[in-house]
Structures are given as structure tokens and as C-alpha cells.
Amino acid sequence: MDDVLLRQALEFGKPYTGKGEVASYIPELSKADGRELGICVRTIEGEEFHCGYWQRRFTIQSISKVINLSMALEHHGFDAVFHKTKMEPSGASFNSMSRISDNEDIPFNPLINSGAIAIVELLLPLGLDYMLSAVRDLCGDKYITIDEEVFQSEWSHSARNRSLAYLLQSKGLMDGNVEDTLRLYTQLCSLSVTAESLSNLGQLLANGGVQPETGRRLLKEEVVRTTLTMMLTCGMYDGSGEFAVRVGLPSKSGVGGGILSVVPGEMGIGVYGPSLDRKGNSVAGQKVLEYISRTEKLHILDRYSRNSLSAPQN
Fold this sequence. Notes:
By secondary structure, this protein is an alpha+beta fold. 44% of the residues lie in helices and 10% in strands. It has two domains: 3-61 and 192-296, Beta-lactamase (3-Layer(aba) Sandwich), CATH 3.40.710; 64-189, Beta-lactamase (3-Layer(aba) Sandwich). A hairpin with a 3-residue loop joins β6 (258-263) and β7 (267-272).
């Protein structure tokens, strides 16, 4: 991994920025420049490589679900979390209501909106200030804060999420104040990050929950394992299967244009590219990650071939 590879990957991805559209269902997100593209990589040895718009601030959106899941597992444990949601890919859009209709009792996974809203209820007692501090620690970015313009825009266009939340309450999956839960959920989606912030979070997850530079454990090893598994199987909305084949890395996207990817035991990758496909994933960001994964053989199922090539020959 080096800066030359990242420049090559970015050049490979740039033509795809014109093949998508920036998110518009949240009006404030429509102001993003769909031509922008950036990437940052942090290895567990502490090396950093970056290129393009890697310092551009954007809102984390659904990538916050990775943090929410991790924190809920840390504070409440596996059984409490997966009492509220399954662990299966939904095969539906991220804001779908059909999968928690009368035929299903609980959301399919914690990385779609319905499952994430149910999970955030567990975090209500911690409060926004605690969660903001935790996000800053996990992302190694003390400048993360709520983008108030995006929050207000998202809050005033939250009818679908509000419908999901009250549907969850009707099924007995939410016992507390629905509006308070939805507000915290929306605030956490509205946090401003950079590709570097995401790469720091990825580095932490790649290192099993321990910050490599300080040796400080922020997440339990079993929490990281569960979180990465959910990212691999469900992290790219209803495009998760194809992404797993093409890229093969635990990843989570957000409609703000970010993608967080993790190479377990090696590095974290943060990508920013706000031009999205119809499933809500960065079009060019996916191509950048595919280029890097194929070139460096980072797909999790390439691990055997990488180890074979490095093994001493008799």
C-alpha cells in the first residue's frame, strides 16, 4: 500500500462519479459536489496514505450504525441487542417498511434503518454528549460535531423513519419515548466526519478494538467480531452481496457519500464520494475499493493465496 496505488485507484474511480446522483431526499445533502472523491488508509502499524478529498467534511449518515451497534453491544451485550433485531441480510432498501410488516416480528439486521432505530433506544440512557465523546474517540477525531443544517433538514424530512419507529413500538420493540429515540438516531446520522475519521475507525476495528498508537482498548474483541460480520453481510444495503463478491471487505456505506472498509489485522479505509447509485452507495467509492482490493488481494478470501505466496518455498 502506498500513495501511488491510491492515486491510481482514484483515477480509476473518477469516471464513475458521473454515473450516480447525490442524495436529495434530505435536501441539505443535495448540496454536495458529486464530482468529489477522496480516500484515506490507516494501517495498524500507524502508516497513513491519502489522496483526493480525504479531508472534506461530510455527514456520517448510516455509517453511524456501526458505532451504534458496537456501543450497544459494549453496554448491553449480545442477547439484548439481538432481541431487537435479527442478523440476516434484508434484500430490501435501507428504509424499507415491508420487512417489518405483519409477516415479520423484528427487523432483519441492525444496519438498516428499522433495526438501527431499535438499537438506538438502548443508547438513550447514555445520552448525546456521551455518544459524541465516544464517536470522537473511536474515530480519532476531536472535531466531530453535529452538522446542524443537515440535522434540521433530516429531522424535518423524517416521516418515513418516524413511521418505522412507531411500527417498531406497535410490535413491542420500543418501550421508551419514540421521539427521543428518533432524535438521537438522527443526530448521530448528522455527525460530520472525513475519510480520515473513517479510516481511523477502520484501523481500530482492524486491530480488534485496540488503538494501535496508545494500546488502549476501546471495544471488546467479541464486539468487533460481531460488528465486522454484520458489516460484511449487511453493510452495503441491498447491494451487500455483490459488494462482498467484488470487494470482499467488511464495509458500511452512508448516503452522505462515505464508505468505511476494514481489512482485519491490517488496515482501515475511509472513502468519500457523494455520487450514489440507486441503492444509496457511493458509485465511485465502490470502484476505488474494488481496484485496491483486487490489486492488493485484500478480499477476505484472498488471504489464503496471499499467505501461500509469502510462505517459504522448499
